[in-house]
Structure formats: structure tokens, C-alpha cells
Fold this protein.
Amino acid sequence: MLPLIANSLVAGLRERWQQRVYRWIDRRSPRALQVQLTRKNLYTFPNFTGLLYLLAALVIWLLGTNYQNNLILGLSYLLISIFVVSILHGFANLSGITVRFVSARPTFAGDSAAFVLELTCIHKAGCDNLELRWQNGETQTVTLNYNEPLQVTVRCESRTRGYLRPGRLLVQSRFPLGIIRCWSWLNLDAVALIYPAPIATDEPHAQASDGREEGGTSQRGGDDFSGLREYQPGDPIKHIAWKQFAQDKGLFTKEYQAYFSAEKWLDWDSLNHLQELRLSGLCYWAMEYERRQIPFGLRLPGIAIAPALGDYHQQTVLKALAEFNLPREANHAR
Amino acid sequence: MLARLRGRAKPTKTAAKRQPEYLVRDKLALLLVMQALLILPLLFNLPAWLWLVWAIAALWRTQMFRGRWGAPGSLVKAILVFACAAGMLASYSGRASTETMVGLLVCTFSLKLLEANSPRDAQLLIFIGLVVTATQFLFSQTPQAAAYGLLCVVLILTTWRSLYLTHEQTTPVRLKRGAMILLHALPMMLVLFVVIPRLGPLWATPNQQMAKTGFSDSVSPGDLGNLALDTSPAFRVEFTNQPPSTNQLYWRGLVLDEFDGRAWRMRERWGGRPADLTAEDSERELVDYSIIVEPHGQPWLFSLMTPRAVDTPGKSIRITADSLLMNRSPVAQRMRYQVTSDLKIDRKEALQLSDSQRIFYTQLPRDSNPQTRALAESWRNQNLRTDQIIARALALFNREFTYTLQPPVLGQHSVDEFLLVSKRGFCEHFASSFSVLLRAAGIPARLVVGYQGGRWNPLENYLLVSQSDAHAWTEVWIDGQGWQMIDPTAVVAPNRIEQGMNEALGATDQELVTDAWQSSSLLYNLQLRWDAATYTWQRWVLNYDSTAQEGLLSRLLGGTETWRITLWLIGLGLIGAALFAWALVRSHKKPTNSAEIRAIKNLEHKLRQLGYKRKTGETLGDFTRRILVSEPQLRTGLTKILILFEQIAYQNQPEKLFELQQTIKQFPR
């Protein structure tokens, strides 16, 4: 029991300390799209391995002192100097790097959002073993060459729909000897749109939807293959007839036929759940209709999007779902 | 887009981009090479089976990497560890010595290789490797050993850095970068070495097993003759003022006062305190000198008669009743000490030999060397005075004796055989028989062993005393004068004392001692130079102690006060920081513009002089059109430049570059 309390106490203290550090960093570096690493925002400190290293240097110093051996003493002083030099090299490795936020792909809540960053290194030796990580994300290790901008995707877990601010970006390196950690917390102006997580619910009550047995019209799209036609720009890639393309016959698009009623409406009122689950259900069906190539429209309180199909339409619908009735601070994040 | 949206699989791990969990080929190879080179010099000083331990570990690890053998199980590991421990126990019969410590370290270093799977393990190996490098210096401290140690450090840094490297780099480049780290660290290391105060040993360390060199505390005929062939250095002396003349350079090491008929031994183990000798200032002839003695595994040290004061950093040397220098423990490390000797000392009333001492110093074994004793007793019966007996004895050597390195082997009554039959001998023969003669005649006498003379090195102004300078002579008690030194060898071979052993020997003997080095003056000079370099190394690096530190600091900085040193350190730190900042700024290069952009910048410069400034974000085309509105006469030139630039920049026609540059150069004509 006692260790448990102690653990939670330590965790709490650590959390508070972390918050305090973040606040301090935020004060020092205002949010920006592009940040350059300089002596103002780079920090260095020995890590655990570094302390072990100093211990080894101490052991060697004791050996030299007890045996009154100047060469061994000299070696221990050399190790101390290498420690200092490694601080300088580690700092030089990171300094001058520019980090720019390029874009973020929208994703569904619960998935990791991919933020694309562009890194440029303006010192000749390049930059080695550079680790990038959002505050609560997974680490990405990259190498930079002089004057070769590199686009890196750094992911961050998303929890709820809306706009995701990944927080501060940790840029750190233990190069060259792993005994010194040189790092910076960057306050990048990065934001990603997070759609609601799709959850299969009952089909929203579809207005005027009938099966084909009730005399529906045949329309392009659907599950049944009906033939090939010449490719037109804008056709979905997954419909391209790759087999024919591979046979050098040219680029064709496979056509599908389906029988369904003219259009479906994703109606807020047709589902009877809590708000978030409703949005998730609408999201699921939006995806489903798009997959089945059934034109669909969206009706939310105060918003109506006319039925249509295609990537752009789907994005509009999903964005509307993501932005619907966001809590105030989340809206503020925009 | 849709496909990506639907592919809601869990985020794929970018394993390839992460730091590898396992040691990859190049890192493992570097680690193996590093380990081999680190252990190599140690294996010459440690039991040979350690070679095997390392070879097994290295082979096994290589096979593990190639996927041939599996990782050793915990049973195999336990057996290996147990075998190593048992081996160390057997090799050193359980004694805790420096060698045992280093041997265990080498075992750990080798066996840890079998467990080195991740970079983290490799990191641990690196740290052990640093300590292993340090232990190399326990066995050898020559400049070569130091250079080898630095090489090891470069190799360690290279391997170490490679663990954290995320892109491909060739081995020479890696070595270069590793060496750069060392190079950058060296200046600070030098400052630390010079400035950081030296402490004495913090606790007793296990003694190193020392090969004993030089003479021992028992001298029988032939012992010193063997040393005569050994040209290795015994110690080096630097005199504060003018060095004394060669015939005064008798470096006393041991006093042997017990004779068993053949060998001289030491009865008393250096007890007592030196007699308080008083002398008028005018009668003193003080010599100050410092000696760096090679480790010889014995506690005694060397000084000129009579040492009055001795100083070492550890205050471990004292002066005995026989005016000898004794160290607290056998000399296992090269050490430096400072002595003040009084060459001329008046002890008229200072010393009295007690009756028991007089009996002791005239003692001889009853049944040995009867003929010598008979001769001496005949002198005694003639009621000769002490000085007359000494003169008789010396006169005996004057006639038909030969100084040689190859004396015949002597039997039980060695003195009889030498004095009456062979008459050929080395210094210990003369000193021994002379002492026996005097003792038999009732005069207190004892044998002194040490070194005589030395070779002057004019390059660094010091005296090199080699093992071949080992010498034995006699000290005789003369009432009212105390112990007086008499060297019977000087009577037989005066050259030995004046010019050194080589001059005193016959032609056949000379061939024995003359090696290739001494046969040519060029080589001799080289040897002199090498020894001078060694001496400098010993003085300034190996024996840089608190005394030397104080001297150097006050010479360099003008004093050794704390504030002064602190100020200097701050100054040096600032210089270092400035150098670093300068290097950093220099390494930061703004990406250079391509040649056509640079040409356009020239053009912009010219247009600015005409009063047109290109706005940020304005294309070159817009800019030109804006100018042409008010400056139509520039149309031909600007249009040509615009077309050329677009061809180069967007139509991949770099061959037009020269034309563009020329046109801009001539613009606006």
C-alpha cells in the first residue's frame, strides 16, 4: 500500500514539475510555425549513462591517485575533458537546425495523427541521431545532411474529435557519446483535424430509400462490376484497371453498377444516442455510403450539406462532424 | 485519401528508422578490434591462459553474430566465470595483488562480450574498456605506452561514437571523428593535469609483484660482475649546482656487515636513527641533488655520503643509523626524491664505537679463509698502526692483481683462493677480501654496495647511473675519524673510478660489455638523446608531483595563490568558449544560392542604383515589367536576361549560364 501511495505521490510531483517546465518553456518560446534551434532554446544535461561515465572517470582517478601514477591520472583528466567536449559536440550537433510545421493529415479519433515537419540543417557536419517526439507521442529518429531539407512524419495519439494540438515537440539527441542529452521543447503552431471515431450504429433513418425491387434506377457505382471505360482524371485510384494497364493496353477505369434510390441523408435526428456516439455513427455511415458509392447528404442542427459523392464531399461531411458543437476551449484551439 | 482513411490499422512502427536493438555488423566488428587492442599489452603481464579466455569469448560472439552458435546459457556462463575465478586463484595462489585485480578485470571484459547484444551492453563494455586502458599504465609508463594508450582512447571513442551514429560512415571517417573528440579534449586535459592538486594515496593498494633488479642484500663473489653486463638505467641524478668530481660519486645503497666466509649479508635491518652529527658551517661541503630511481623492488635508495636531509612527496624515506636511505616499502614505482648530502664531515668527537660494536665489526667465521687470517694476524703481531695495516693491505693489491669481468669460480674459502691463487677479480672480490683482511687484523670494517660514477648527459644535464655501474667498496672505522671509505678497486684499476668500467677492463672484457650502441658515435649519440628524452618524460610527466606542480605554476603564472589560478582558469575557459563559438559560427553556412540566382542578385544591385528595388515576393517577370513602364530603353537587355534566366532555372539549360552572367555584367549598356 505504502509504495503505491509513494508512487502516486512521485507521479503527481513529476506531473506538476512537468507542467511548470512547460509553462516556463512556453514563456520563453512563443508558438510559431518555424523555429530555429539556438543557444536560447537548447538545453544540455548529462543523462544516467553520463553519470555512469563520470563514475568510471572517478574510479580511474582513484586508481591513479592510489598508485601515484600520473599517466592514469592524466587519463582520468582526459575523460573529464571528453565529457566537456561531448557537451559542446552535442550542442553543435543540434544548433542551427530549423524545424517547420508543414501539414497534418486529418485522422479519426483514437488513431495517431501524422504531423509532417520539415527539418533543415545549416551546419556542415549534418546532424546525427536526432529524436523527435510530441509531448505524448512516439519517438522518430532521423539523420540530417547539410542543406538537404527532410520531411519527417511525427505521430501523436488523438483522443477526441475536433482540433488536436500535439503540444510541444521534443527535439533531442544524445550524439556523439550518449552521455549528454541535448534537447529543446518547441512550441510549434501545429494543429490536426480529428474526425469522430467511426462506430457502426443502426443505419440512420434514410429518407426515401428503397431497394431496386421497388423500381430504383441503376446507377454507376456500387458493388457489381459492369465494364471498363477510359480513365478520366479524378477517377478513384482503386477503380483503375491495373491488369489492363500492366498489359500496356492503356489506363482504364472499372465501372460498377448498383441499384439504389437516388440519395441518402445522414440525419442527426434519425439516431437516438448521446452526441458523440451519434457523430461517430454518422461518421461510420458517411464512410459506408462513400464505399458503396451511394450519394449522401448530412443534416445536423444548423447545418445541411446536399447529397453528393467523392473525396471532397466526404471531407466536407467529416469536417462538419468533427467541428460540430465543439467545447469552447477546443474551438479556441483553432 | 479514402484508402488512407480506411486503412485504420494501428500505427505502423517505424522500426527501420529507430535505433537498432541489436549490435549490427560494423559496430560489433569495431568493438572486437577495440577489445583486442586494449587487452593486448596487458596479456604480456598476466597469465597466458587469459589469451584463451578472450579468444573463446571473441570466437563465440562472432559465431553468434553469424547465427552459427546460440547464446551461452546461464550454466555455461556460470562455468566460464567459475573457471576464470579458479584460474586467477591458481595463478596467483590466492594473493590479492594488482595483477589479480587486473586479471579479473580482463576476464570480466572478455566474458561480458558474450552478453553484449544491445548498444546498451556495448556502452558498458566501453566503460570497462576505459578502466582497462588505465590499467595498462600500471605495467608500463614509457612514452610508447602513453602513445599506445592514446591510440586505445581514439579507438574507444570511435567505437563509442559509432554506437550512436545513425547514418553510414566509412571506418577512416569514423576514426577521424573519434580522433577529433580526443584532439578537442587534449588542451583541457593538459590544463587539468598541470593545475589539479596531487593527493597522496588514499588507502593501501595491493602491491604489484615487482621484478627485483640490481643487487640484493647478500653479495657473494661474482654477483656484481653479472650486473656489469646490464646497461639498463638504475637511476638518474640532477644536481642543483656544480656536480662533484667523478671520484666522489660513490652512491651508497647498502651496508653489509656480516660475513659468512663467502657472502656478505646484512645483520641489522636498518634500525636506529642517524647520529646527530655536528659540524661547523665552514667545514661543510653540501651537495643538493634530486634522483629519479627506476623501480627495483627493494626498499633501499641511493645517496652520496653523508645524507643530511631527504625529501619526497610522501615523506616515505628516512635516513638510517648507517646513513642510508630507506623507503617505507619496496620501490615499485619510479620515484623521485631530493637529497642534501655533506661530502665533508668532521666527526672527531661525534662517534664512538662501543665494545660490542667493535667485536661485531671484526667478526669473522672461525674456520674460513685460514690463510688470509694468518696473514692479517702476522701484521697485527707486528704492532702496526691502523693506517699502516691499511697501507699494507692496499699494497698487496697493487702488485699482481687483475681487474676482470671473468674471474675464475671461487670455492669455500673464497678470500684465500682469490688473494693467494687466482688474483683475478671484480670489485666485490677486492672489497670483500680487503674487508676480511682488516677484520682479521682487528680493524672494524664493512662492505658497502651501491653504484659508482655514472654517465653525464650534456643534453639535459643529468647523470645516468646504470646497473653496470654497480660497485662494492669498504668502509673502515678509524678511531677519531669514524667510518672512512676506502675503495681497493681504485688501487688496482684507477681507470674504473675515473673514467668508468669500460676503460678499466682488458680487451677481451671490453668485448663483453661493449654492445652495438657504444661501438659507433652516431648510435651513441642517438642513445644519449633517447635517454635524455626519457629523462624529460620521467621528470615532467611521470614525476610531476606537488613540488613540481608548485614550481611550474609559480613559473608559469607568477604564483600559486588560489585567486591567481582561478583567474587563469576563468581566462582559459573564456578563451575556450570563444574558440568554440567561433568554430560553431564558421560551421554554420547559409545554403548558398545557385549561380544564376547570384547573377540575378548582381542585376538587382545594379537596378537598385537606378532606383528600382525588388519587393519581397515579386517575381522577376513582374519586377521587369514594372521597370519597363518607366524605362523602356532597358527592354532589350532585361528581356534577354529574363529569357536566359527562365531557360536556366526552369528549362534545365545550364549551358546558358555564362551568357546570362556576361549579359548582366554588361547591363545596362
Q: What stands out?
A: Chain A touches chain B through 73 residues (CB under 8 Å).
